[in-house]
Amino acid sequence: MGQRFCVDDYFHIGQMHLGSGKPCQDYSFSGVIDEGAFAIVSDGCSTGRHTDVGARIIALSTVSALQRWLKATNTSINKLGQLVTEQHNYAILKSCEAFNLQLPDMLATCLYVCLTPTGGLVGIQGDGVIAKVYRDGSITLAAYRWDNNTPLYPAYAADNYSSFIKVHGNDPNLSPLQVEYHHHNALGDIQINPQSISLGEAIKGITQKISGDEAVELSFLAVFTDGVMQVEGVHWKDAVLQLLAFKNVEGEFAKRRMIRFIKNSKAEGKKGPLDDISYAVIRIDHEIPEEV
Description:
This protein has helices at about 15-20, 50-70, 80-100, 160-165, 200-205, 210-215, 235-245, 255-265, and strands spanning about 1-10, 25-35, 35-45, 110-115, 120-125, 130-135, 140-145, 175-185, 190-195, 205-210, 220-225, 275-290. The two termini are about 10 Å apart.
């Protein structure tokens, strides 16, 4: 039995930015490299400067790191998070020099997943949602939220996170990152005990390995910006589940689903996404005939 990866992603401006004349500060990107695939979303800080530019720089520098890792033959999965951080730091420095940008332009989150037949990695730098859909129909969701609406942007590494630590009380032992877990199966929604992550641990980098055994059981792996938590009249879990309810998985399947989701919301008299929203999805097709 073989596996084939397919990807798609989409980002959309929210009503708050559309109404105020601001650009969309979300961005998404996905791709397939050899036998692996990746999906990335980034969300620029609303109170920053040109963070629509920053979101793209953060996302595209992540693409560079993931491509390098997927093309390498002897690089451990344990080093992938470090590669991403190094690429972010390099891209931020060079972009500020080349385009006369400043650090507030680079305040953007980054959530990414990278998957191969032998396993993969989930990386969380900021807030948003990770979703896993399994072949048996069960779904696990993890929502990441930061206190004071101040997530850990990769750009804060520029001053060794000192300004970020100051925002969160100057105490690395505080736990400003809250993670809410849900598991959905045929019996319904099972909420798992939430987790609090300390500032010190979060700064080290939040990554989750995906084993080869788990990769075999996955049908979809998706990342969402926190805009999915700000859809008028829809709880974030329901928004995520609706955005994963693909009717057709060919071509631009994620783009079509998001557009339909927004149209349905407005047809019900709601505003749809209030904040910018983006997601990126890896689809895993199983039972692909092996080449002889």
